[in-house]
Amino acid sequence: MTVKHPREHGRESRDLEINPIFSREPLRVPRYAMPHGEMEPDTAYQLVHDELMLDGNARQNLATFVSTWAEPEAQRLMAECAEKNMIDKDEYPQTAELETRCVHMLARLWHAQNPHRAVGCSTTGSSEAAMLGGLALKRRWQHRRRAEGKPADRPNLVMGINVQICWEKFADYFEVEPRYVPMEGDSYHLTPERAAELCDENTIGVVAVLGSTFDGSYEPVAGICAALDDLQSRTGIDVPVHVDGASGAMIAPFVDPDLEWDFRLPRVASINTSGHKFGLVMPGVGWALWRDEEALPDDLVFHVNYLGGDMPTFALNFSRPGAQVVAQYYNFLRLGFDGYRRVQQTCRDVATRLARRIGELDAFELITDGSETPVFAFRIRDGVRNFSVFDVSAALRERGWLVPAYTFPENRTDLAVLRIVVRNGFSHDLADLLMEDIRRVLTRLEKQGEPHRDADDAGGFAHGAETKNARTPGRD
């Protein structure tokens, strides 16, 4: 995000005239320059605290996938570990040990054939973890091409245009051609046939998304793997799969145990997830795991000697907080498999019930129903012409609800939707209150003669559902 500098004149450049502790003499504090002198800590606190009251209520933010609630014990542990740097593994060996335990737990959860051979690490979030997965795919492909005496300068990556924006960043930053499969008709994500069609000898991998940010749906990972198996049998082209499980990788193991999407499929080389989404940790922590050592080229791994032993590290970031890793281990320990299953099933139950009630309204039509990830999207029904999804989103903001409205990507830009993410802490009771407000705003919006807002009024409020431009395969 680009930070805009304030204008040198006008309202934005005024100093703050404040009386932060209401019985004290007023102070004058510059907005965009460091003050010349000190102030009392409680004065500084009051000033910052009062400005932050203008932020939205995080619990009512139904746009974000990121956790907005945690148990007091988890928050206490994070406070106790606030000063711990995850990269300082020799200074904080027990924090490093908890990271290793989490990797092994995830390897078992995702059915690694030999969990002790699975390789993984924590990251600052699922975006960094996804980029690490992409880097490993690219490096493996380069090694193989060079060993065969073939050029390794035109790698491409196949994925649906519904992927999170981090994959567009990966392709740009690391010089990989993105091959997006566009949305067509009622197909809103990657299909096995289209994935295989775009693959060639320069394809480093296919990204399959378990929990699309656009509508919450799972992509058919097993079907994609089967299509790539068939491609290899016909052409000899061997393309691995990376599963972007930012959301679904912490949902499916608990409530869809029979769904094959993980390391049970031999073609799945790596998986990323977000610990601070449905992993139930406050931001920010993610996880990247590889099937085994062969899936992560050793020349990407830096080996750190700590306590006389070898600690391999592979991450884009260096210093980062250890508190969230500790909180992840706390959640795994505190909830166990049954606890996570209960939490995720409750989220799904709230989502499907809320989606069903919204779908019963004359104004809306469901795109998805929350029965995969507890996320669903809905549109304005055909024939309703006096308001738009952007009107609904703006009206709900008046009551504090943040419900994003956005258009779908290329080939389906005609489709504008609202999306609701149900996270731990969004209860049936809160869902009932939301329904009351939806009915209330519809009563008012139905009296409009025409829509008052469109996509230009939505701002940067898509939370992962940003539009990308599809590119023709092979085009520079």
UniProtKB/TrEMBL annotation:
Task: Provide the family line.
Answer: Belongs to the group II decarboxylase family.
Q: What phylogenetic lineage does the species belong to?
A: Bacteria, Bacillati, Actinomycetota, Actinomycetes, Kitasatosporales
Sorted keywords for this record are: Decarboxylase, Lyase, Pyridoxal phosphate
The annotated region (Disordered) lies at 449-476
Give the catalytic activity: L-glutamate + H(+) = 4-aminobutanoate + CO2
Please name the NCBIfam families in this protein's record: Glu-decarb-GAD
Q: What is this protein called?
A: Glutamate decarboxylase
Q: What is its EC number?
A: 4.1.1.15
Q: Which Pfam families match?
A: Pyridoxal_deC (PF00282)
The record's annotation in Gene3D superfamilies points to: 3.90.1150.160, 4.10.280.50, Type I PLP-dependent aspartate aminotransferase-like (Major domain)
- The EC class name is lyase
Q: Which GO molecular function annotations are given, in alphabetical order?
A: glutamate decarboxylase activity
What PANTHER family does the annotation carry?
A: GLUTAMATE DECARBOXYLASE
Q: Which cofactor does it need?
A: pyridoxal 5'-phosphate
**InterPro entries cross-referenced by the UniProt entry:** Glutamate_decarboxylase, PyrdxlP-dep_de-COase, PyrdxlP-dep_Trfase, PyrdxlP-dep_Trfase_major
Enumerate composition-biased segments (Basic and acidic residues): 465-476
